[in-house]
Write a structure and sequence with these properties.
- The chain has one domain: Cytochrome Bc1 Complex, Chain D, domain 2 (Orthogonal Bundle).
- It has 117 residues and is mainly alpha-helical.
Amino acid sequence: MTYRLTLLAPAAASAALALSACVTTPAPPPPEPPAFVEAACGGCHSVEPPFLSPSTTAPSFEAVANRPGVTRATIKAWLRNAHNYPEQMDFDLTSEKVDEVADYMITLRRRDYIPVE
C-alpha cells in the first residue's frame, strides 16, 4: 500500500501543478489618475473606470491606451504636438505633464481588453 502512495504522489503533484497554471488571477485595478489628468482631461475623456467618457466624441483613456501600436512613446509624441489636438483642447502641455499623462495612460493597457462598440 505504501508503494502505491509513493508512486501516486508525484503524479498528483504534477496534476496539481498543471492545474494551477490554468488559473488566472484578475489584473489589478489601474492606479488613480493624477489630479492634473482628471482636471485637464476628465471633462471630455473618461480617465478612470467605468470608462464612459462625458463627451461622446472623446475616447476613453482606456480605449486609446489599448489601440494597436500605442505605446508610451507614441502617446508622448502625440501629446507633444498641439496641432493634433481637437479645437476643444486649447492648451499646451509641458514635458512633465506629457510624461504624467503618458505614464498614467500606459497603465490602462490590458491583455484582455475588448473594445466597446
